[in-house]
């Protein structure tokens, strides 16, 4: 046991998991602060309604790390119904003219999955790709032709109920003696004699510690402008949309795999327990350059429901149109349904 005080800024996935492992390793004084009054924060990236869980990465380190995580997710005693092993269909359409014969991200990911012993199966043509979908979808016109589609099925992958996972880990942190303090917005570091001694919050409160861990995600640069992180990294928001199905419609698509297109960045989940289908495009994203009150410069700062109410949920119209186009190329019957909600995932 160590009596060193630890302060963690950010109660999302990284902050809470860091607190958990420090407590398990004998740190007895761990405090986590977060800007949101409600935890898990409704606008945090780690508490989006669901997240893809896969070992399909082009970097073998991440493939091994993800495989370890998947084994942990499958422990229902720890995680209950948080993880859903639906499988992940990785699509790798033909390269565009002029791209050249380079090995694709999907090829490298497949090779790594094979190396770590993951359950994967090549899908050499559209017939093979369509075969991994339930017959109620594949043979009823609900699944697009997927012409020229190739890829592979990663059977060990799936998706996790993100907010539920963070909530469970937060409960464990509290049970181990961690102190979680919501509603504290960090605005700078407390420095003494060239060393970081704590964090200053916008309400004037100060939190001191022997070790300060910053896990504020996309809020990092705007929360700590003195670190000049905006010259090294840029906060961007990814556009996300949700489609509401009826229970009968959802049951048709319930057993579909996650679909992930590595060339376009488009991905889509099967319906969740509320019969909602989430879709998104993993891309460079969009910035929100806002004047910082003390730094006297523009810093990309997340624009969310907590900072801008309902306006913070809007996504660019061009992306909304692009999302519908991609949706029509997977599940055409769903492409004309309204988006019940959109958000930027920062």
From TrEMBL:
Coiled-coil zones: none
Cofactor section: FAD
GO MF annotations in UniProt: flavin adenine dinucleotide binding; L-pipecolate oxidase activity; proline dehydrogenase activity; sarcosine oxidase activity
FAD dependent oxidoreductase domain ranges (all copies): 5-336
Keywords, sorted A to Z: FAD, Flavoprotein, Oxidoreductase
Domain of life: Eukaryota
Pfam families linked to this entry: DAO
Family: Belongs to the MSOX/MTOX family.
Protein name (Swiss-Prot/TrEMBL): FAD dependent oxidoreductase domain-containing protein
């Amino acid at each position: 046991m160590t009596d060193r005080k630890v302060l963690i800024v950010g109660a999302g996935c990284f902050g809470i998991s860091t607190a958990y492992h420090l407590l398990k390793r004998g740190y007895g004084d761990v405090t986590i602060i977060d800007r949101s009054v409600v935890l898990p924060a409704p606008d945090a990236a780690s508490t989006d309604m669901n997240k893809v869980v896969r070992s399909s990465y082009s970097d073998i380190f991440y493939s091994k790390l993800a495989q370890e995580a998947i084994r942990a997710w499958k422990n229902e005693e720890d995680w209950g119904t948080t993880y859903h092993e639906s499988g992940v269909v990785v699509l790798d359409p033909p390269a565009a003219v002029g791209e050249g014969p380079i090995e694709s991200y999907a090829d490298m990911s497949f090779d790594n999955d094979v190396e770590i012993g993951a359950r994967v199966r090549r899908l050499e043509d559209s017939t093979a790709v369509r075969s991994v979908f339930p017959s109620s979808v594949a043979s009823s016109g609900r699944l697009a032709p997927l012409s020229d589609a190739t890829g592979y099925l990663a059977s060990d992958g799936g998706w996790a109920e993100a907010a539920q996972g963070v909530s469970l880990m937060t409960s464990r942190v509290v049970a181990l003696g961690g102190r979680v303090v919501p509603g504290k917005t960090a605005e700078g570091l407390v420095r003494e004699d060239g060393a970081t001694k704590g964090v200053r919050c916008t309400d004037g409160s100060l939190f001191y510690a022997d070790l300060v861990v910053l896990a504020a995600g996309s809020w990092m640069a705007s929360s700590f402008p003195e670190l000049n992180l905006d010259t090294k990294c840029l906060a961007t928001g990814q556009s996300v949309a949700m489609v509401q199905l009826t229970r009968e419609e959802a049951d048709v698509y319930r057993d579909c795999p996650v679909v992930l297109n590595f060339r376009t960045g488009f991905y889509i989940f099967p319906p969740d327990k509320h019969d909602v289908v989430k879709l998104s495009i993993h891309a460079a994203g969009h910035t929100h350059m806002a004047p910082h009150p003390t730094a006297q410069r523009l810093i990309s700062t997340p624009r969310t429901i907590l900072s801008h109410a309902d306006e913070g949920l809007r996504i660019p119209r061009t992306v909304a149109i692009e999302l519908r186009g991609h949706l029509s190329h997977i599940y055409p019957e769903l492409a004309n349904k309204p988006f019940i909600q959109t958000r930027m995932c920062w």
